[in-house]
Amino acid sequence: MATPQEIFKALSAIPSYTGASILPNSTDSTLNIQVSLSQRDLERNVRRKFTRTVVASVTDKSIPLILNGPSIDTGDAVAQLLSPSGALSVTLRSVAGEKKKHFVEIWADGSILHLLETTALHDDFYSDSTFGTIEWSKDETKIVYVAERKKTEDAVEKYNYKPDWGETFAGKRDPSLVVVNLDTYEVKVLDRFDGDMSPGQAIFSHDSKSLIFTGYLRNPQFFGIVYCQNRLTGLYSVNVDGSGLKHLTPTLKSARSPRLSADGSTLVFLSNTVNGPHASCAKLLKLDVASGKVSTVVDIVRKPEAASGFPGLYIDQLPRDTWVSPSKIFVSSNNRSRKTLLSIDVNSGSIEELTPPSQYPGTTNVLFANPKWVLTTYSTPTEPWILILGRIEFEKNNSDLKVKFFSLENSKVEKAKAFYQPHSWSIVHKIPGQLDSLEAIFIEPFKSNASAQVSSAVSGTKPPLVIFPHGGPHSGFAAEFSILNLVLVGLGFAVANVNFTGSLGFGQDNVEALVGRVGELDVNECLAVRDHILSTGVVDTGRTVVTGGSHGGFLSAHLLAKDPTGFKAAVLRNPVTDIPAMASVTDIGDWCYAVNDLPFDMEAPPTATISDPEVFKRLRAASPMQHVEKVTAPSLLLIGAGDRRVPPSQGFSWWQARQNQIKKTQSHGVNRIQVFEGTGHALDSIEAESNSAYSLGNFLVEFTRVDHPSVPAAGTAGQEEAAVGRQGEGGRGAFI
């Protein structure tokens, strides 16, 4: 019988891919591929980063011969990038100490050519996908990156308040473009732009004389930016010396993620609806560089023509290397409960799915593409990520293509296989009486081994069921490898990852259908998924639990009140519990209005939140706190002390309300809470991620294992427990 700690530790030994590229010194027959990976280090409570070179011999279009080089720990390197020719490379490095120091390293022929300390010029580098940048100019004479502007030391001005960019960006307020001139080795931090605009995602123009970047607008109010595609943004160009700022997309309120074609003639980018849902169906647009004309390549899809039809694009950022020809790009996008690889013709707007569900029922993420090759990862709920190489072959007209895929490498961690190979998965859909868009990824433990289920942590002849809705609410589960899912399945639970109405990958109408109905439609659909799975007879009908984070925690709290006897226990991670109380303290106050179908204009936000009593009533009516007195099932809350998205007060107040109710009714209620310092909304520090997974697994086992007594032992009622620290067999998808 495995414990959550044993399962998590074994699965944590599997590294995950964070990037890959085919190096410039590759030939037609031999590819030198640089792979970037990360792995959890549970001893040091850090995430280790390392690179590895994979050499693939691809002679005669046969299955490649693969040679793997040793892994090299990148240590305190923040970002690295080879120059276009491969002759040079740049490393951005931050070195911890009594005072953190920052360096730009230029490498050539395996040694440092030039070392530039930039500590006096700027603060931390940005390496995230929102602002983060590291790019070479085509002529290899310049480098651009983004760093936090130096804070003023003026005796008065240093006390002036300036908001930061919210969740995951604590203390980061002023991202700035930094240009390194390799002819003079001058490092220049460009001046602030008019309008208090923050730059990010910068690339060089084709002639290397100017920069093209995404500008994030923050006037009059700062809004949290991570996970939010509906923010006010635009594309801009500026000369490398900081002069000549030009707005490239003045007719659009949303424009981000610029990617320039190899010949410099066409710029593609993404645009989402401003205001409303934080994530939605995106437009793909293009800008003709010569004329400045902007046109739509792929429009918003309201509703797929059929269940298997194209549902639109759901992309946070375009791949850095996305162009495969002057007219085609490769992207990955959500398609129902999976993610797939798409080829898009930027001239005609035609779209081809390159990884159809019949062959690739799981999730494909593109890492790199050029005119000859594409690198992706692929996984399923019961198969770890593998690295895949695709050979691109164009037809004679150069408009049609086909891709032949080869597996380059997969997980070699033998001790982890016992915790994913015995399990199976399927997609639950076509639930009677429900919308066609309602789906769940259903993972079953030990399907072909009844004795393993009996001897599991929860015991019994059939597994208990975990209902697990996602956060957002406008996000979604994809059929991919998840350690948290597999911890639960390894303990003997069956897990249903619910993609309720509002999830991405089903069309824009589906996104908007949840607006104004949170806490009602999504709650009822979670119950419908539960009841449908219970009716199949594959799980124990008397042992159902629920867990979720953020909006998933919001739904979990609602479910406990909606059906007080229908769930044996619940674990809520940073849950939204009281929407009106959250509106003025979260970094995304607009969310509180948007999901409840109330107007909120980011260009003219209200002067006082929740000032209208009718608005307060509406938000409160949608909140789990409205019904907390109905909750009786054992509950555990897992809280990130640094959460800016759903502040800890949301979980604390729900927990306290339950404590008061337990005392008032003198019941034997179980109501626990754990708080993890040094982590935020995602509970994604290694310490919080691992320990919250242990707590979640142990808590659900405690109240579902067959030999658990029906009444808790005397003296345990309402005690707070606080801790500081977060396809068929073999993965082939089936449908039920």
From TrEMBL:
Its main location: cytoplasm. InterPro entries: 6-blade_b-propeller_TolB-like, AARE_N, AB_hydrolase_fold, Peptidase_S9_cat. Belongs to the peptidase S9C family. Residues 481-699 form the Peptidase S9 prolyl oligopeptidase catalytic domain. Residues 711-736 are annotated as: Disordered. This is Acylamino-acid-releasing enzyme. It catalyses: Cleavage of an N-acetyl or N-formyl amino acid from the N-terminus of a polypeptide. Homotetramer. Keywords: Cytoplasm, Hydrolase. Residues 727-736 have a biased composition (Gly residues). It is found in: Cytoplasm. One of its GO terms (cellular component) is cytoplasm. Residues 6-153, 160-399 form the Acylamino-acid-releasing enzyme N-terminal domain. GO terms for molecular function: omega peptidase activity; serine-type endopeptidase activity. Its EC number is 3.4.19.1. One of its GO terms (biological process) is proteolysis. Gene3D superfamilies: alpha/beta hydrolase, TolB, C-terminal domain. The keyword Cytoplasm applies. It comes from the Eukaryota. The keyword Hydrolase applies.
